Amino acid sequence: ADEIIGLEYGSVVRTNLGYELTVLRPMITDILLERGERITQVIYPKDAAQIIVTAGIGPGSRVGEAGVGSGFMTALLAYYVRPNGKVYGYDKREDAIRIARKNLELLGLLEWVELRVGDVVNEGFMERDLDAVILDMGDPWNAIPNATEALRPDGTLVIYVPTVNQVLKVLGALRDNGYVDVKMVDVMIREWKTEPNEVRPQTWVNAHTGYLIIGRRSARSAKPAKQLPHD
Fold first, then answer.
1. pTM for this structure?
2. What value, to the nearest 5°, has the Cα angle with vertex 154 and ends 74 and 50?
């Protein structure tokens, strides 16, 4: 280990057993998965990547997230909204917010995140005109009305749930709240072996982790205007 310190990334070192190792710069996902502290289940990179691309999240995006948990998804969102975007993360648990803050500090990404202890179902989001809102919570269907208020008129709502029972409630709530272009995906990754004379699928498949339901807010999503009393 001492021989590696101070070497440039890409350098090759040989172990005392004769194996060659290459020194590589860690990716953000490497740091999260290997060094990130966990207090809850996390959204894994395969699902996080789909969320970011599907929601059109990029530099300058303003994103709300409810159900921050350990902050893994929060960190990836912050990484992609830099340098002038912002992530607004909510969780009901103070201990979750504390762990998420530590993980964001580890990655140097706290600058692009505002963390709040709050219940978005009963209290809503403080922000308005967000480009996207991500819900990762036990009862996301109950948060859809307040998420709708926080989104810009054509903003994207992405909901992550692990069970079909939750999917059915989410789809019903999206219909009731006037969402359009609703899609649902289940992301699976099948890695392959790439050794000489052994190019084939790996025995283990990274299969189901959760369902992603994506919808776009529309004019029908807005709450009806209050009627003024007649004279």
1. 0.88
2. 40
